[in-house]
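Sample entry (110 residues):
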Amino acid sequence: MNNQNTKYERAKKRVKQLKGFYDHLKVFLVINGLFYLFRSEWFQSLLFDGFPLEPYFFDWIHANFFIWLAILVVHGLVVFAPKLQFFKGWEERQIKKYMDEEMDERDKYK
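Predicted structure, serialized as tokens:
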């Protein structure tokens, strides 16, 4: 019974992680879509005449997009990395590699 509870809790945690990532992705797409809509000439034509429309005024939108994208990629790696085969046993492989190097180095001087 305890094993079933543990599996259920892990599955529940995994679903929560996936839901959090997909919610983050949705917010990213909606907000950045709105920002790029604000940057469009159609939206700028709706603004009052005194609104500052210098070319550099909307440049922060690009920085926001790329910084947020980097954060989203990190979030995706955190959520999906346990499923990647590369990370499984990485620590053990590194330990074995360094132990083998030590053995080779030691045997070289015998």
